[in-house]
Amino acid sequence: MTSPSTVLPAPLPDDPNSPLTPPPPRRKTRSPRRRRWTRVVVAILVLVFLAVGTSYARALTYPGSATWQERSVEWVRDHGGNSVVNSIENWYYTRHAPTNASPSAAALPAWAQGSRLSVVASHPSAAGGGPAAIRALPGATALAGEGTWVSGRVDAAGSPAVYTTIFQPDPAHASVVAAAAWMRSSDTTAHLVAGTLQPDGHSWPGNAQVAPADVPALVATFNSGWKVKDIRGGFYLDGRTGARLVDGEASAVIDDQGHISVGQWGRDFTMSSHVRAVRQNLQLVVDAGAPVDGLTANGNGRWGNSKNQLQYTARSGLGVTASGDLVYIAGTAMNLQTLATAMVDAGIVRGMELDIHSNLQSFATWTPSASATTMTPVKLLPSMQRPADRYLAPDQRDFFYLTLR
């Protein structure tokens, strides 16, 4: 009789000592070369993010008056995103036309609501006189005080050196409000100041602000043109060139007597020992007392990137009258053609566009207190977003100011 066979227990599948358990898979090891390249790629990505972050942080903290939104947009423009920003602006501003409703009271300056400065009778410009009244649009309901000039700071003889008014320049869009400031050339001295970033980011005399000694004599402060790198024209100040001056470009020119005029470089002005400052911006929009042909088409980018001329946005402009006096224009939701029309309405015979969009549009008139110990600035339009005293501190953009002679 045979003894029964001994039956061994079946090995567990996960028993590492079992002959039936397969050996663990061998871990694949990266080659030293592959590990090295991985570290290089990671290091490059870290450096890129650090560089971008550092660059953006520098843009947000760079000296000069500018909102973080403006700084962010300009940073994108300066780092390869200019065409993207232009496309977004063109898409947005061409699709948001102003309404034909009457403007709200909030869109009008305080004096148009009866709370500032007396309205003076307008009459044709003459020695000691003011500008001619601006006619209201035919068939439109006139705004309070529309087209009638309000006197500002006076000279030593008691004659106003500056007048301001409002009017409606667009017959198809009654909500659009334009404002004009007329400044007597014989009463004022003009100054151009380089900003901390414009025209070239280098240090210029003047500390990018109104000279403290000039503050008591201030008549007006106002914005300049586009960023120099975005135009064909140039910048010149006190013997120094920030960007090369170009024939054919619209130019605001200050001579060695402090008189300012506007015209075409190479035709109306050329360089001489009497030229103290030149700020160019695009081409003239008004010439011989009329809007220049082709403003709507903007052929060859004479007035900026394609479709920029069609944007309904805040715009500003500068020009001279037939008598040589200076006129600044600003308005809400205007395309380029409307700006030029408004400039002609205000008596400009040669004029240029300045900066556009409400965060870049700045104009303030200045008046002394009764004791003449303090100066009070007043915005030309309440829609201007920047502080009225913007240019008393260093600013990133170049700008103009006028003082009493």
SSE order and pairing:
Elements: H1 32-61, H2 68-94, E1 150-151, E2 162-167, E3 178-183, E4 188-193, E5 218-223, E6 235-237, E7 240-243, E8 250-255, E9 260-264, E10 275-280, E11 286-287, E12 290-291, E13 313-320, E14 326-334, H3 336-345, E15 350-356, E16 363-368, E17 375-379, E18 399-404
Antiparallel strand pairs: 1-2, 2-3, 3-14, 4-18, 5-16, 5-18, 6-7, 6-10, 8-9, 8-10, 11-12, 13-14, 13-15, 16-17
Write structural notes for this entry.
Keywords: Membrane, Transmembrane, Transmembrane helix. This is Phosphodiester glycosidase domain-containing protein. 17% of the residues lie in helices and 23% in strands. The protein is an alpha+beta fold and 405 residues long. The protein folds into two domains: 61 residues; 302 residues, no CATH class. The strands form four sheets. A six-stranded antiparallel beta sheet has the order 1-2-3-14-13-15. Strand 16 and strand 17 form a beta hairpin. It is elongated, with a radius of gyration of 31 Å.
Number of strands: 18
Please bin the fraction of helical residues: 10-25%
Pick out the low-confidence regions.
115-127
Kindly report the spatial arrangement of strands forming the biggest sheet: 1-2-3-14-13-15
Proportion of residues in β-strands: 15-25%
Order of helices and strands: HHEEEEEEEEEEEEEEHEEEE
Overall geometric form: elongated
Count of helices? 3
User: Mean pLDDT, rounded to whole units?
Assistant: 88
N- to C-terminal distance = 138 Å
Radius of gyration over alpha carbons? Answer: 31 Å
Category by helix and strand content: alpha+beta
Largest sheet, in brief, is: 6 strands, antiparallel
Q: In total, how many domains does the architecture comprise?
A: 2
